[in-house]
Here is the input.
Amino acid sequence: MVDQIRAVAEPQSGAGPEAGPEPGKDPARAGSHPVSGPKSLLVLAVACFALYFTGLGDFPAIDPAEGYYVESAREMVELGNYVVPYLNHQIYFSKPIMTFWLIAGSYNLFGLSEWAARLPYAILSTLLVIGAFWTGSVLSKKSDDGSGCRAGLIAGLSLACAPLLLLISRTSPVDIAFSVFLCLAVMATAITMAGGSPFAWILIYAGLGLAMLAKGPAAILLYGLGALGFLAISRPSPKALWHLLGKLKVLPGLPVFLAVVVPWHYLVYKATDGLFLKVFFLYENVARYAGHTNMGKMSWWFFIPTILAGFFPFILLAPALASEALGLSGKTTGGAVEKLRRLLIEPARQIALDGRTCGLAFLLAFSFTTFVFFSLSGTKLITYILPVLAPLAVLVGVRVDSLLRDGRSFWLTLLSGSFLVFGVTGALATFVAAFLLKGISVFCLSVCLAAACVLLGGAVWQWRQHRLGRLESAVRGLFVTYVASLAVFAPVGFHIFGTRLQGDLRTVSVAASRLPGPVSMYGVFMPSAMFYARKPINTFFVLNQVRPDNSSAGEAILIRDLDRGRFEEVPGLRLEEIARAGEWGLYMAPGYRVETIMTLSDVFANDELFDALMKGSSPTGPLTVPYARGNAGLSKTVPAGVSLPGSEGGK
Here is the structure.
């Protein structure tokens, strides 16, 4: 087993010219184009700019996920409260502070817009890609020039092209910040294990702290499960384990972690008398994992198709990635079954002694345990699986680089062939959609058809290069084609479908912003409406909340066409249309007002109601969003000294 691990972990040295070429290695196929660090970073910068930054402001905020955060950050700037998150002028218990800080900071720098809201996440996604490049370069088998930049470049590009990351990074969800900071901690752990940097250990604890500020204790839990998985794989001796802990500098790292985490938790505890932390840690974490915070239930296999589509085509290399990380890809006697038997039976302590293999095994363990953890969760969203992409991308970079170095073709054939199928079907689907979809501008249509031609031509070309034995050229062609086509499809697709999905609501919500009085919405909770109306909106689902009030001028109501007829049930109500766009209308209800329900703070402060929510037995179902229009200006939970509109002494 020791020899096996060494064969994988260390480049073959000492084989002079008289030794001849390595078996199965074709110099014409691999290593013929050295890749430098600066050039690799330039390539990744160009790819990330094309994939993540173009067209960020060309489509409305998407409900519900993005709407929560763009509006909550707007209220943070409006209220001047940077400690307690608010949504709909209520305390928003769902997430910690980091996501709101990022967007609010961008608002303060660049103004209130969709582009400003999304910019921090494009930057963070780029940072994650650079982190994958660095980690892949450190953990790869070194080339003749002593660098592992080719592996790092492949890792970075495979992550940048991941459809799931691309899909999520173009909106403003909490999972981007969480995944970036958590993955930086995970990758810094692998680099530290490999001895790649004397200072990478600082990123472990700073990253974990920032991830906890982004999404809470899930950061520590997922990292800890990954560590346990690694120990199960490596089974190090006590001496090796002690040596590893010394490398990771656990004791010096703890103050770094606490310095990042403690200040905000202390401030929000004081500001809300402990209610925020109680609700967040218990209801938003424990009850969420038990499935008590969402109506819909997903099957245990939900994340299998998610990862297949979200990391296509590189996820098809999963068996090869595991083989590389577990030390089964070395040139040892026996087949795969025999190698696996040896791994399971013999002690694997050498993994904990060999830095490179140790780092790869940790990345694999983290990816596997995270995937299993969320598969067992009672609540499942496609964004939950995002943290596994970067570690998998590093494994892809290291493994593909190794395959190119050795001239092995089976897994590369699978990669190239699957991309050929993807290119052909994707191009055909684009051609069909271009003729079926109506209302698309000539420019968007022309650009998409051109991108489809690039996708088809590039997919065929890289397959031909592979068939000719030019493996490195085939891989290069795959990435060039993938980046070029996605760089067109992503911004144009978000513009077309985002505008169709949310454009009408944006129009009537902007009209609502010009009204001096209160605004309500019937039948559906759409937080982006608050963002465009620049005010809280009371969402209601029961028509008996519409009550006569002759003392008021009336209340404006946002109503979908499919719900418009129901208001005829309200005696004496005569709706006056103010604005209309598509299926949405803005109406005035003269002489009527809409009653509000309890705020989240009122519900969660009631021990009986809170207990029912924790058990999932509340008659109203899960409660995570603030339907009622709150009054943050009068909230007693706002920290002293913060002057808010509408509060006593406020201006």
